Amino acid sequence: MGHTVTITELFLIAMLIIFAAPYLVWRVFRTDYWAPLVVVQIVAGILLGPGVLGAVFPDYYAFVFRPEVIQALNGVAWWAVMMFVWVAGVELDLQEAWRRKAETGVTAGLALATPLLLGAGAALILLATGDGWAGAEGETWQVVLGIGMACAVTALPILILFMDKLEILRRPLGQRVLRYASLDDIAIWGVLALILLDWERVGRQGAFLIGFTVAAMAMRRLMPRLVERDRWFVSFIWLALVGLVADWAGLHYMVGAFLAGAVLDARWFDQKRMDEFRDTVLMTVMPVFFLSTGLRTTWDVGGVAVFGAAALLLLASVGGKLAGVHLAGRLLKWAPGEAAVIGWLLQTKALIMIIFANILLDKGIITSGTFTALLLMAVGSTMLTIPMVTPRLRRSADLAGKDG
């Protein structure tokens, strides 16, 4: 008797592909120097999407990635990315940034503003070439500001992983870079909230901000009174609640996830346990988010046009970040070589940019073609980081010990 494949079996086939394919590529081809496992997983998500796998093997793609399977995968992906963004919010350390506010403000400001302006210019060029880049719900200013900010994003969680790999995370240079990236992270989510401001739901959004402020004050009073194990449980309840209300208000659940983490204090959690939790989320559930992201990539605008747009955005992103940091280095009189290392570290994109672009796509501000170009740009910029930073650190053995 023939066996009818169930949705559960198809879901597990999809999970098998999600975890096996990237790992085998990463391990067999030893890509870690150019493409760490997280980057391979992102690329695999693109290749497994409708634009590549779906085009080459349409019957197989339609068989495995049925709407019911995609819906189940999306549920896992939503919670995975909420936990990941929550961790990014918790790990923000603004006390040290405030202590060195002049130097941190100049560097973070230039590192954000320069690629944002160049990215906005690139967006205007894309919009001038014709249709296919602006979403149905996106005003011109939202599209331009959104693409510009996508070019300015620094992926704080991936930056932490890279600096740990380079053995500079706990050294003065690594802590400096974290200060700059932390300020930029706040600006990114602030700009996103501006882009998502919905005048039809401005009452809900105002109520959310007021209610969140009151609830956050109560959380900050409650958390120190709990033992650490209870803090984790309460944090996840808090995460789900803030994500729910933020989405209800029209600000997107990922904005809520970041805010839920940002109001908590990292010292309330054991640092080693938080590192292990972040790594566990990356290893166990974030690959599902990467595939979910890959399923949204399309080449409707045309393959050549999408790759051309990605190259333009990559130039604006990397060039803008390096130019901004070099200008900061001149103003602050850094030693030779410092600006190049810091600039290449801060241009790391990957996850936060992909999350940012996902939100823009969800809200109809950009099209799938623009999303695909941004995704390719994020992958390209992230793959450049380790190869560009490693030889520079070797040439400046004392650089990692400088505290700015």
The total beta strand count reads 0
What's the story with the biggest beta sheet?
Answer: none
Overall shape: globular
| Overall pLDDT metric | 87
Instruction: Give the amount of beta strand, in percent.
Output: under 5%
Give the helix tally.
19
Rg for CA atoms: 21 Å
- Order of secondary-structure elements: HHHHHHHHHHHHHHHHHHH
Unreliably modeled segments: none
Helical content (DSSP H or I, runs of 4+): over 70%
**Structural class per helix/strand content?**
mainly alpha
What's the N-to-C terminus distance?
A: 72 Å
Walkthrough of the structure:
- The chain is mostly helical.
- 75% of the residues lie in helices and 0% in strands.
- The protein has 19 helices and no strands.
- The chain has helices spanning 7-28, 37-47, 53-56, 58-64, 67-90, 94-99, 101-129, 140-152, 156-165, 172-195, 202-222, 228-248, 253-262, 271-284, 286-294, 303-332, 338-346, 350-362, 368-395.
- It is globular and about 70 Å long.
- It starts with 6 loop residues before the first helix and ends in a 9-residue tail after the last helix.
